Structures are given as C-alpha cells and as structure tokens.
Amino acid sequence: MNQRPIRNFVAGLCHPKRPQRLPLRAVGEEWSVEYQASRQPGVTLRQVGPGRLLIEGRIGSSSLCREALRRWLKAKARQVLVPQLHQLARQHGFQFARVQIRCQKTRWGSCSTRGTISLNLKLLFLPPALVEHVLIHELCHTVHMNHSQAFWNLVSRCDPHMKENRAAMKQALNYVPAWL
Questions:
Q1: Secondary structure (H, E, C), the chain
Q2: Domains delineated in the chain
Q3: Rounded to two decimals, what is the model's pTM?
C-alpha cells in the first residue's frame, strides 16, 4: 500500500464551501463538479457527461450544494459498495441480512446483531484496499460481534494485508474532503 493520504486542500481538491472535484479512489473515478445559478427554489444535481456533474439552482447556498452531493454520493456508494460487499460475502462464506449506506461522522461501517451492515459513503474516497478491508471487517462481525482474538484471526484469514491496512486506516480520513 504505497498510496499516501493527500491533505484535503492540497492541489485544489475542494473549495471549503463548494467542491470542484470528487476523487473517488475506491472506484478509480474523478468527477468534476460545475455550478450554474438559476432561479429555481433549490438545487438539482445531474450528470452532464463522463465524469462531470452539474449543480443548478441556488448555488449560493453551500449547504444545499453539499446536500445534493451527499445524496449523489449515497446513490453511488449503493451502486458500488453493495455489490462489492455481496461479492466478498460469497467469496468468504459470510451471510448478512441487509445493507445501509449512511454518512457517518466517526465510523467507516458497523454491523448490528440482526445482520444489518451499515457502510459509510465516505468509503468511496479511500483506496480500494482500504475499502475491502473495511468490508471484510464488517462481514467478520456477522460471525464475531466483538473485537476478540477470534475476530481478528478471522479478519486476517480474509485480508492477508490486515496489519498494513489497519495501520493505514488511522490516516484514512485524510482522503475524505473536508466539506463532507
């Protein structure tokens, strides 16, 4: 894992109020975000080309723009992360009841005792190896609802780079834009 986190405002990754780019490392995509003012009451977000998003409307409202981007990211995460979670579950023999995509402040994911796995949409900004590590971590909680030695043994069997990935996760927030 040679990728190093880049500070959020370095190289213009985002404007503190209106992001210009969305570097979705998890899927190897970079999206530009354009803004166009209009008199419509809120804002709308639509894809206007490959890797291009347009936010139209009351773009002076940073909160409306950020909320539109969060909704788009949530849909993108559902489109990308849910199939990946299902594939890893099949590959390693795990079962879970359902998946939720959320925008959590402090957690990358969680697993309930009922088998519901919640994933943070911010995972889209992480490198693929770290995303897979988090997904495996949550799948292992379907077997062990704790962080016992048995849990970590299971994680290490499914993720041969567990130690490196766990260490890298300590800096993972550096990949997430500050506006989010």
A1: CCCCCCCCCHHHCCCCCCCCEEEEHHHCEEEEEEEEECCCCCEEEEEEECCEEEEEECCCCHHHHHHHHHHHHHHHHHHHHHHHHHHHHHHHCCCCCEEEEECCCCCCEEECCCCEEEEEHHHHHCCHHHHHHHHHHHHHCCCCCCCCHHHHHHHHHHCCCHHHHHHHHCCHHHHCCCCC
A2: 11-175 (3.30.2010.10)
A3: 0.89
* pLDDT tens profile 75-106: 999 999 999 999 999 999 999 999 999 999 99
**Tokens encoding 99:** 């998946």
